[in-house]
Design goal:
The chain has helices spanning 16-27, 39-49, 61-75, 98-126, 147-169, 210-222, 233-244, 246-261, 294-320, and strands at residues 7-11, 31-36, 52-55, 80-83, 89-90, 129-134, 175-182, 194-195, 227-230. Helix 4 (98-126) runs parallel beside helix 5 (147-169). It has 9 helices and 9 strands. The chain has a single domain, classed as Rossmann fold.
Length: 321
């Protein structure tokens, strides 16, 4: 699909990967309808970049259907829909209230379901369109102390598989569904996360820029593929390790979360983050995890971890022989 002249809806457009994707599409000449709860952030993007704002909570099906009606009435069609809205909550499984679990799943999973349910009928009728669902590497290797987020990301991958095969077996050839799986990305989402751990979560190196993920999302619109990992060598090595020896990869990742991600004390243990409302203040693409000195740490961590992963995988393969 040609990006210039296309009509694309992006959810989660107020910050992070969604905002980077919206800006990338606008630069390439697309008409972009941005969806988020934060009307002020969308208005800023409208004034500065020409985005068409559509304030809505993706957990509300009626609101998402309203976005589709508005976009279709104004522009005549929707060529692509990018599901990217998300919230996170950190906490031990038994400590997180069920209402919080439901809220994360309502946004991170049902928000994607709502987008697909609302956008697909028009695409199927025209036999033309692309759905891009932004899942995560955490939809393959789950995040300890973040079960609801990982549950949603696993399910998003299943949603993509189901939709692709239903469209294929129904004879719909012009509508495609692709999934993007980012690794650790420098966005504000972890800083704004709900948190019941008593720690201050931080991202471990290496982290990648939202712009890098946005380019992959845009390429999924241009030439849809089944699943694409948005990350560097380390992310791919961990996924290889998980494929060869799942338990080892899961333990390796869990130790990283315990040793670094949740090692800083200081959380209140009851912060609801952005579960209910968007954060105060201006919204951004970046989260500030790639500050001065981080590049050296990123390369060192990547090198060490890559050696560990390669050694583990090689050992496992040797043991199988």
């Amino acid at each position: 699909m040609e990006i210039a002249g296309s009509v694309v809806v992006v959810t989660g457009a107020s910050s992070g990967i969604g905002r980077a994707t919206a800006l990338d599409l606008l630069r390439r000449g697309a008409t972009v309808v941005g969806v988020a709860r934060d009307a002020a952030a969308l208005s800023e993007l409208q004034t500065g970049h020409g985005l068409h704002p559509a304030p809505a909570d993706v957990a509300d099906l009626a609101a998402v259907e309203g976005v589709v009606r508005e976009a279709t009435t104004r522009f005549g069609r929707i060529d692509a829909w990018v599901n990217c809205a998300g919230v996170v909550e950190f906490g031990a499984f038994l400590d997180v209230p069920l209402d919080d679990v439901r809220r994360v799943l309502d946004v991170d999973l049902m928000g994607y379901v709502h987008g697909c349910r609302a956008a697909l009928p028009g695409m199927v009728e025209r036999d033309r369109g692309v759905i891009v669902n932004v899942s995560s590497v955490l939809g393959i290797v789950a995040l300890p102390y973040g079960a609801s987020y990982s549950m949603a990301k696993f399910a998003i991958r299943a949603l993509g598989v189901s939709l692709r095969q239903e469209l294929r077996t129904s004879g719909v050839r012009g509508v495609r569904v692709g999934t993007v799986l980012p690794a650790a990305v420098d966005t504000p989402i972890w800083r704004a996360a709900a948190n019941r751990t008593g720690a201050r979560p931080r991202l471990a190196a290496p982290t990648y820029t939202p712009e890098r993920v946005a380019r992959i999302v845009v390429n999924q619109i241009r030439r849809p593929r089944r699943e694409v990992v948005a990350g560097g060598v380390l992310a791919r090595l961990i996924l290889l390790q998980h494929k060869v020896w799942p338990e080892s990869a899961e333990r390796f990742f869990a130790e990283e979360v315990h040793r670094y991600v949740l090692a800083r004390p200081g959380g209140s243990g009851r912060d609801r983050g952005t579960l209910d409302e968007p954060p105060d203040g201006p919204r951004r693409v970046h989260g500030g995890w790639n500050g001065p000195g981080r590049e050296g740490a990123r390369r060192l961590a990547a090198g060490i971890a890559a050696g560990v992963v390669v050694g583990t995988v090689a050992g496992r393969l040797a043991a199988r022989r």
